[in-house]
Design brief:
The complex is a heterodimer of chains A (250) and B (313). Chain A is mainly α and 250 residues long. Chain A is built from eleven helices and no strands. Chain B contains twelve helices and 14 strands. The chains are: A mainly alpha (250), B alpha/beta (313).
């Protein structure tokens, strides 16, 4: 299984390297938000409930945004593969079924790591100061969340099987998730009803946890909740994703 | 090589239930090229996908390449190759890379040498580094076949192998397919809706319509069994002496008279024609033209299903 996963990973990694544009494109939106919106927050950070230094509060949100969108759109690649008949061909080989999913997700995480490094470098240049261990832990949490999102994206792609059906479904799902996670401004500023709705999405816990980590707060309940939410998301996503890859009418 | 009994597949969608395959029995011996002929929607691809372990049958049993289809699908997959209707290559991926991955997934060591030999055999040498999307239609199909052959299967499934190719590429592909049978003793199961392909390529044909096999045999057997040769005779003057003359000939099965044209269904038309001409001459009939038409698989299909394959497609 491991061997198969690595083979699939290598194939899709090579494919990504051939079309380097994809890596840059996924990075574009978060960088824009970071550079063109982030500086606006430095004046507001004094507001009660904001949670501290502007960059320490904002960058975790942007990281989650990157993870969400970068991983959310991976399904398109699978739809293309379905159309070319690649998935069908691979299914007749002895390849382990979950390797088909896992290999792709590993590739997506690799791309995400590259994008994260670029994003963080920009953030530091703009004024982010946070403990390195906190940042690393935050990034790891985001990556796990993204893995779950990617698996769900692939599962949705398998279900819809066409760009026309997949694209609207994806945008309808991603935008609320992004807003409810408290990416732009922390949910601690939200009225009660919004706070409650936000707490139904796993990304909210992830964002709060990463904010904690960026402050150097490793052991609070927030971090624990974030880790639990993300692990649960990934577990459910992979179970569902693998099942769809195995299902007979592909 | 293949033994299937009562293979069936029903698709249940939100609005309708489709019985794509309704109880198909088939036997395929090793080393033969068997064709599955039928109009679009007859159930050819569905049956092929079931036999290739990609689709679970809703009923029936099968033994493919020596292994039970339901119980040992992984073992079946090791011994079969499948070349799908739409191919299976990413246009951006270089030929060599696809072959390499395919070989590794089958547990073969990445032996570049063997892969290159395979490419050479299928007239694809020198294309190792080319992206699959830059290949011509015929080359792309041969690449798909190469990918199906990487693990040296005993049985190869070809789903509509020449659809969309120009006549030259089709003929070329037929030659390659025949060579696989002749040189490697490979068993080939192909589906097609082209009559000429079934006629030219297959040792045996199974005609499928609406999910069931309606006829099977070698192309010759099928043509002889269900239809006869058609001899058309055009006359001058009174047809009655001609009618009685041909009526006396035992090989004539049926005579249809339309004005001064006689349409006879006969057996072994090429031999009977000579006797007919002599009989007509002796009877004093004035024959102005005589034509012989051999039956085609379309005639077979028409006789068995009541529809023409060309119309049904």
């Amino acid at each position: 299984m491991l061997r198969d996963t690595l083979l699939i990973y290598r194939r899709y990694l090579r494919q990504t390297l051939r079309t380097r544009l994809a890596i840059v494109f996924g990075l574009l939106q978060p960088i824009l938000y970071l550079t063109l919106f982030g500086p606006l927050l430095t004046k507001i950070s004094g507001v009660r409930g904001f949670g501290g230094d502007a960059w320490q509060v904002y960058v975790p949100g942007i990281l989650v945004q990157l993870g969400l969108f970068s991983a959310g759109f991976v399904g398109f690649g699978l739809i293309a593969d379905l159309r070319y008949g690649v998935i069908e061909r691979l299914r007749v080989t002895p390849v382990h079924r979950s390797a088909l999913l896992l290999g792709r997700v590993l590739r997506d995480l690799t791309v995400l790591v590259v994008q994260t490094v670029a994003l963080l470098a920009t953030a530091v240049a703009l004024g982010l100061r946070a403990p390195w261990t906190g940042v690393a832990a935050g990034v790891a949490l985001m990556l796990l969340m993204a893995a779950g999102v990617a698996a769900l994206s692939y599962a949705l792609a398998l279900k819809t099987r066409s760009e026309d059906a997949f694209a609207p479904l994806l945008s309808t799902a991603l935008v609320p998730l992004m807003l409810l996670a408290g990416i732009m401004l922390p949910m601690s500023l939200a009225p009660r009803w919004l706070d409650v709705v936000s707490k139904c999405t796993p990304m909210r816990y992830a964002t709060d946890a990463i904010r904690s980590l960026f402050r150097g707060d490793y052991s609070g309940a927030t971090v624990a909740e974030g880790v639990a939410a993300v692990v649960l998301l990934a577990a459910v996503a992979f179970a569902y994703g693998t099942r769809r890859f195995v299902r007979e009418n592909i | 090589m293949i033994e299937a009994y009562g293979l069936a597949r029903t698709f249940r969608a939100k609005h309708a239930t489709v019985e794509a395959v309704r109880g198909v029995d088939l036997q395929v011996a090793a080393g033969e090229i068997v064709g599955f002929l039928g109009p679009n929607g007859a159930g050819k691809t569905t049956t092929t996908r079931m036999l290739a372990t990609l689709l679970k049958p809703t009923a029936g049993t099968a033994t493919v390449a020596g292994h039970d289809l339901i119980a040992e699908p992984a073992a079946v997959r090791r011994r079969i190759g499948l070349v799908g209707q739409s191919g299976g290559t990413d246009p951006g991926c270089p030929v060599g890379e696809e072959l390499d991955l395919q070989a590794r997934l089958h547990g073969r060591t990445a032996d570049g040498e063997r892969a290159r030999k395979l490419l050479a055999r299928l007239e694809l040498d020198g294309l190792w580094d080319r992206p699959a999307g830059t290949l011509s239609g015929g080359q792309r199909r041969r690449l798909d076949i190469a990918l199906g052959l990487v693990h040296e299967p005993a049985l190869l499934f070809l789903d509509e192998p020449t659809t969309g190719l120009d006549p030259h590429s089709r003929g070329n592909l037929w030659t390659h397919i025949r060579r696989l049978r002749d040189e490697d003793g490979m068993t080939i199961f192909l589906t097609t809706h082209y009559l000429d392909e079934a006629d030219a390529l297959c040792d045996r044909i199974l005609i499928i319509d609406d999910g069931e096999i309606v006829a099977s045999g070698t192309p010759e057997e099928l043509k002889r069994r269900v239809a006869g040769d058609v001899v058309t005779i055009e006359l001058d003057g009174d047809p009655s002496p001609a009618v009685s003359a041909v009526g006396a000939e035992p090989a004539v099965r049926e005579v249809v008279v339309t004005g001064r044209v006689l349409r006879l269904t006969v057996e072994h038309g090429d031999q009977v024609m000579v006797r007919l001409l002599r009989a007509l001459d002796a009877a004093g009939a004035q024959v102005t033209a005589i034509r012989l038409a051999r039956p085609t698989l379309d005639d077979v299909f028409l006789t068995v299903t009541g529809r023409s394959l060309r119309d049904a497609a």
